[in-house]
Amino acid sequence: MAAILPLNRAGARASARLFGFGTPLLLCAIAGLTTAAAPAQSAPPTAAISRAAEMPELAGPGAMAIGTETLTLARGHRIIDVTMWYPSAPEARSPEARGPGAVYRHTFARPGSAAVELAEPGRAVFQAAPAGSGHFPLVLISHGYGGWGTHMSRLGEALASHGYVVASIDHRDRAFTDGASFVVSFSEVLGNRAADQRAVLHALLGDAAGSSRLIAPRLAAQIDKDAVGVIGYSMGGYGALTVAGAAVDPQAPAFAPVPAAARGALAEADPALSAKIKAVVAIAPWGAQPGSAVWTDAGLAQVTAPLLLIDGDQDDVADFSNGVSRVFAAAKGAERYLLVFREAAHNVAGNPIALPADAGFGAIENASDPVWRKDRIEGIDEHFIRAFFDQNLKHDAGAARYLNVPVPQSDAGTWPSAFGQQWGGTYAGDAQPAYWRGFQRRWAAGLELHHKRAGE
Q: What domain range includes position 428?
């Protein structure tokens, strides 16, 4: 039973049942930060977030005003937060009429580094009235291990401004300080990620026991229940693929130390819910790499919803070559895309974080990429995620033009230009059929986008 309840910041943070893991193989899976989260809250007005002009065409905010509020969900003894972003009434566009914008606060901490207090200003208005008419696709966001519910607030707001209702889970992962406490924490995550995602989806879709207690009927009324998408990063990606139908193998190496009864619980499926998911974005998903695999190839082939995978080809956490690439090859039940940031590592999701000059290396390596700027990664993610959801949740045939690129390696695209000709930031369109659509000349660089149809 799950119900979304009014936000109670002093609520219990009970943890789920433990699974008795030993120490092998798990320490390589640290894919986020040990953190303490704070929900969205109003603050004095701040400057609106903008996207640099270099970002691809579909990145950044749309025309719709945005509201936000934070709810809590009770799943058995677990209490988790859910930050909502949604299209709001038109008057919220006016700074004079809308009131203060949301600020997303969080304590960013990592063992061995000093904590950094984050305050991300947003465009959304706290508890703004929803748009009065229309149904919008629902997108669920699930963060990586040790992450937090507003780690992808800029993506959530951008989607809402383009006509999506977005629900981002704060899974409240247990903090760890050493190897033993890490094993306990990560064991909980293995059990909770998919279960949390299922509980939130059931509650928002109104099809679970107890969902009548949803304290946001005005938001539920906005949701198009036939257009549901999921975004999961790292361990959130493990959950997203599982919720979308990838059958967990209870005999998989990652679960070897888990008692048989617990393995059986992990392998439980929810096919009725899986069938409602129409699009999945898995960013650097954990769980397919040798030694830590949780699915067989046959299990991955059970995903039938269109799938967009995103990763860096130097990801040594989810293992791009042997893990994420394996998902792309094995998920033969789905039409699927694989977007690759060449030379990037695991951190290819989340807001850019402005760290102080004296930040410790532990914080830097968990917030940044050694080659790519995070704001550039964020803009490219937004561009392709929006095209993917517009195609599969809004049935916008034009969105396919951004996904069906003329060449899989962006550097191989061609855009002839006369000597001295200036393009002034023009996006590639119909007149540049050999270049990645939506990118400026010379700016589609360092990327790959691969495509397989269902059955291939």
A: 405-456
